[in-house]
Specification:
It is built from 13 helices and 13 strands. It has about 325 residues and is of the alpha/beta class. The strands form 3 sheets. Strands 2-1-3-4-5-11 form a 6-stranded parallel sheet, sandwiched between helices. It has a 4-stranded parallel sheet with strand order 7-6-8-9, with helices on both faces. Helix 4 links the parallel strand 3 and strand 4. About 5% of the residues have low confidence.
Length: about 325
């Protein structure tokens, strides 16, 4: 008796379902199909701390590579790109939204974005892009075996290498002004390396820290009056105000050594930096592995090994510095 009642209920349900399906096909086939494919798409959320050329390069190259690997935006995946405009509170809101909408993966461009994402979820996979010091910034506890839901790419650079280059170009420098954002852990670790290098090589470091981009020009200007050269690590806040830093430094005829190619393009004198197009591509390849089912924590963090010299000849001319021929021969040159 019980069993037959059950089958009756199932039968009624089935027939109701059939009617509704048939109803749908005959009246509104198009929207239903669209809806179905929409929900089948994987959702990729990209969070970026601020607009500056380097982060934009990473994002564009990431999206292009994802497409190349068969995950085209609007086709197999839906990409939701959000920019926090340099604001920590926005970062949190963006990441919370990605989590509550159950995105399949979060791509966090730069350290502040990655820290915000890691603070919001232990489940949704996070792939960070271009984080200078992932362990020191608390993103992962190990580069080789991240564990958990986090992995990504690092743009770790060597402050000693940049300083060796600086001393080839301007051998007489004795004091270096470190211009950076105190809250950017990606910068703090590079400045610590700079200080260690300086202590071993008879250089003095003067620090000029900022808390947001509106302070950059003033702090750069005061540092330029005190030191022989400026040094800015891979700092997002400084990078977003780099043309202003260059203006100030050129006026004071002081070289600015930096951590990234885009900061040289924007008027810094030179760097030993990594290729951010390659970094964006590698970040996309990791993301594809995750979308195909691999666990983020099982993928080692990847650091970039292709380091190159970048110089800006316009800046050199503006401050009256001649870049040695053997440096120029190996360098990617911006300006004339
Ligand atoms: N490395 C930076 C971070 O960890 C992000 C970054 C990538 C960056 N490219 C840059 C910062 C160029 C300044 C300039 O947050």
């Amino acid at each position: 008796m019980k069993r037959s009642l059950k089958s009756l209920v199932i039968l009624v349900c089935l027939s109701l379902l059939m009617t509704s399906l048939v109803g749908c096909t005959s009246t509104s086939k198009q929207p239903e199909t669209q809806k179905a494919s929409e929900s089948a798409k994987l959702k990729v959320g990209i969070v970026q701390i601020v607009e500056h050329p380097s982060l934009n390069t990473i994002r564009e190259s990431f999206i292009q590579e994802l497409d190349k690997q068969g995950f085209k935006d609007g086709d197999k995946v839906t990409i939701d790109y959000q920019n926090a405009q340099g604001d920590q509170t926005n970062l949190k809101t963006i990441c919370q939204k990605f989590v509550s909408n159950k995105y399949d993966v979060i791509i966090a461009i730069a350290t502040p974005s990655a820290q915000a994402a890691v603070g919001e979820t232990k489940e949704i996979p996070i792939v960070f892009a271009a984080c200078t010091d992932p362990v020191g910034s608390g993103l992962v506890s190990s580069l080789e075996k991240p564990g958990g839901n986090v992995t990504g790419t690092s743009d770790a650079v060597s402050a000693p290498k940049i300083m060796e280059l600086a001393r080839l170009i301007t051998p007489d420098i004795k004091t270096v002004g470190a211009l950076y954002t105190s809250s950017e852990t990606n910068s703090v670790s590079v400045v610590n390396d700079l200080k260690a290098y300086a202590a071993q090589n008879g250089l003095t470091v003067v620090e000029g820290t900022v808390t947001n981009s509106s302070e950059v020009q003033q702090v750069a200007s005061s540092l330029a009056g005190k030191v022989d050269a400026l040094f800015s690590p891979i700092d997002n806040t400084v990078a977003s105000a780099m043309p202003l830093v260059a203006q100030v430094a050129n006026k004071a005829k002081k070289p600015v050594y930096v951590g990234a190619d885009s900061m040289v393009k924007d008027g810094g004198l030179a760097t030993y930096g990594i290729n951010y197009t390659t970094l964006g591509q590698e970040t996309a390849k990791m993301t594809v592995e995750i979308l195909n089912g691999k666990k983020a924590g099982d993928i080692p963090v990847m650091s970039m090994s292709d380091v190159e010299i970048y110089v800006n000849k316009d800046t050199a001319a503006a401050i009256g510095v001649t870049i040695p021929e053997d440096v120029l021969k190996k360098a990617t040159v911006f300006g004339n």
